[in-house]
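[audit] Reproducing an earlier prediction to check determinism. Same input, same settings, fresh worker. If the tokens differ from the archived copy the diff job will pick it up downstream; this log only records the rerun itself.
[audit] input (322 residues):
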Amino acid sequence: MGFPIMRPRRLRSSQALRKAVQETQLSPRDFIYPMFVCPGENVRREISAMPGNYQLSIDQLVAEAKEAESLGIAGIILFGLPESKDPEGSDAYSDDGIVQRAIRAVKQEVSDLLVIADTCLCEYTSHGHCGHIVDGDVDNDATLELLAKSAVAQARAGADIIAPSDMMDGRVEAIRDALDTNGFDTLPILSYAAKYASVFYGPFREAAESAPQFGDRRSYQMDPPNQREAMREIALDIEEGADIIMVKPAMPYLDVVFRAKQEFDLPVAAYQVSGEYSMIVAAARNGWLDLDRAMTESLTCIKRAGADLILTYFAKTMARAL
């Protein structure tokens, strides 16, 4: 039967009806809140390119984590700004490193909040790249040992999930072996399995003070035109022991999120990155978009594509709206 019997508009005639038949619904438990921890006390420094987000000292970060927990958000993911940097990124795997200290502090104060450790070196290296440099490029295999050491240090500090974001070949296996050897065989790995060399990371590099001092990261992060390659990357990470897979960025790569959800029987995360956040906020501040509607629509479409978890700087704002 067709028109006039079938009239789909009947179910769109009121907000109550639209909500009743909504196919995709957001929850605070869908969200992971990215946070930036820095040295000092009582530091709350707004990130100019990401209004509403801050570099936080550990005491301030703990307070934010408590608020996130009270809002029902699933977890936080931590990025560190060390007191000093060196070519090998040693703060990343020091037991007294900035993120390790933050993990311990948060775990002492909250109980119903996942604490995820981003496992990478770019925030800690003086050159801003994600590993050990040889002849002007990141040496893949030499970097694996440093990443494994970082993961173990984060595990010792009490992280609930280890999240390697470096895009080195074989890093999930190296981290899994190191965790298992050190007694952390039950600790899950959330792999940034399909991380693209995206222009949308720009504001993050201000937030984490992690811009490369030479070249770029295109020799290890994925080329944006490639989708089939993303499926190979995800499959390899699963073979190596990944428990959750991630696509980054989110909205420009919804086709990758959707295909990953269809092809792999693991939870799928998607990262609504800094550039996605900042574009929406900037447009809203110029009166070009309604902030609440743009935020809600963007997060809904990421979940609709298949994301089980969404890393987003809107986490607290959206949780309050819900």
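[audit] rerun output stored. Observation attached for the diff report: The chain has a mean pLDDT of 96.
[audit] end
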